[in-house]
Amino acid sequence: MYSMTRINDVINELERFAPPILQEDYDNSGLLIGNANDELKGILVSLDTTEDIVQEAIDNNLNLIISHHPIIFKGLKSLTGKNYTERTLLKAIKNDIAIYAIHTNLDNVFQGVNFQIAKTLKLKDITILKANNKLLKLVVFVPNTHLNEVKEALYSAGAGNIGDYSNCSFYSEGKGSFKANENADPYVGEIGKTHIEEESKLEIILPSYLKSAVLSALFKIHPYEEVAFDLIPLLNNDPKTGSGMIGFLEEEIDERSFMDFLKKTMKTDCIRHTQLLGKKISKIAFCGGSGDFLLESAIHQNADVFISGDFKYHRFFDADNKIVIMDIGHYESEQFTIDLLVGFLTEIFSTFAIRFTEVKTNPINYF
Predict the structure, then answer these.
(1) I need a labelling partner for 278 at 20 to 30 A (CA). Which of 116, 223, 226, 231 fits?
(2) How does residue 170 score in pLDDT terms, banded at 50, 70 and 90?
(3) What CATH homologous superfamily does 7-104+336-356 map to?
(4) If you write DSSP's letter for every residue of 329-354 in order, what string do you get?
């Protein structure tokens, strides 16, 4: 795909998949250290970045580490090697290894972290648990001669997707009028004379985070010097971005059988759970990492079980015999993110070494 692949080429693909604008305000995703213009030698994919991870990259002559969790999360006031974060960064810098984090933006896209959990658990009818991005409607007036070109450009920029349907739009034909003054350079019509043009009113939906990209595509392809358009905020949620997911098992099973399945499938040594309710399990809500903020959403959507990690003691009381919380651990819930990223990158950069880390970075052990 690329004649000479640079680190920035990989970043561009990752950010096309999980746009940085979707990361949470507290997050620090993106290129954390390194030169994006360096030629790519190979990629190491991990959940975390530690000294051992950097050494693994060095040993395998790989100069880009892609991790889910950012190694730099809070502000650094010095870089002296006094803790594991600083030692890891110094080691990477000395060995010209770039570190890129793809965190909550990967959590918030449909095909991201939670979709990988759904695949692992073989769930069906998957939807976002809590949508947190609104939709916009773009209304633009286009000369009929350029209608198809404009539509295709907007589709390519990400507009016109509704659920499982793409290239969705509506247009109605009419006549537009305008008069150019002496400072204008009109595409059609004469300066100082009112011009009537056969036009179409084109309406198309887009997620709010794609506003800049879609408008850029519009202005690039539209023939008019001044583009007449409206951008209207909608109350509709974008069904393809948000926090957590919810789906169904192929067949309902009892609670203990489900926990056996969950423990084996998610490769966890421990499940911390609330009181079992003695009913069959079918509807599963889940969130990779720390998902206790979604508990009320899971209850509201009548899930039988909510799977996540990092639940605090008092939060378990909030299940209130309405749902079974199953805390499988932060690392355990996100470990398959490595498979997701390796699979995605291998399809694009098939000629480069893209390695799964062999280092288990989970800081928690069970006795």
Answers:
(1) 116
(2) very high
(3) NIF3 (NGG1p interacting factor 3)-like (3.40.1390.30)
(4) -HHHHHTTHHHHHHHHHHHH-TTSEE
